[in-house]
Amino acid sequence: MTLPADAVVIHTDGGCRPNPGPGGWGAVLRHGVHVREMCGGEPGETSNNRMELMAPIMALEALTRPVVVHLHTDSTYVRNGITKWVLGWERNGWMTSAKQPVKNVDLWKRLRLACAQHQVEWFWVKGHSGVADNELADVLATRGMHEAIERGVPVG
Fold first, then answer.
1. Residue 133 annotated as binding site
2. Band of the pLDDT at 156, cuts 50, 70, 90?
3. Is 106 annotated as a binding residue?
4. Annotation-wise, does 74 bind a ligand?
5. Considering Cα of 7, then 31, then 133, then 131, what sign does the dihedral take?
6. How far is CA 59 from the centre of its chain?
7. Could you report the per-residue pLDDT of 122-154, keeping only the tens digit for each?
8. What are phi and psi of 14, to 5 degrees?
């Protein structure tokens, strides 16, 4: 896979322990030789899916100008949601095909807005499979969760 010279490669992860429970998200952004690590979390009750969504949202919102982004996630929920389901949800007034309200609609709307600023290509990567930046994003998500719990307030 050949990247454009100005492309940003992002790996994201999120999770909770237990689910639902306190959670964290992490992101690794690479642009040429530059690397930025980000993390945050929620000390109260959240979900794995909310944290998996927060990671790409925060990473994309951190970019200061429109760029080509290759975004890697180990969440099929996030990848399928943003690449396959979200347009139908929007068209149907944020209802699923089963006529139920879309879960995490606040974050899906925020992710759509963040994606609109960039040219984002989505990739799924198997979690805990030795992909260095995915493993780092997992470590960052755990850090974000622990920092949020220690402070007792959302971090990030």
1. no
2. confident
3. no
4. yes
5. positive
6. 7
7. 999 988 888 999 999 999 999 999 999 998 877
8. -155, 160
Active-site residues: which are they?
13-14, 52, 74, 128, 138
Q: For the sheet containing 34-46, what is the strand order? A: 34-46, 21-31, 8-16, 68-73, 119-124
The answer to whether 147 and 39 are in contact (CB under 8 A) is yes
In percent, how much of the chain has pLDDT > 90? Answer: 88
Smallest CA-to-CA distance from 113 within 75, 89, 82 is with 82
Q: What whole-number distance in Å separates Cα of residue 32 and Cα of residue 8?
A: 8
- What number of other Cβ atoms are within 10 A of residue 89's Cβ? 19
CATH code for residues 8-152? 3.30.420.10
Residue with tokens 């492309």: 7
pTM: 0.94
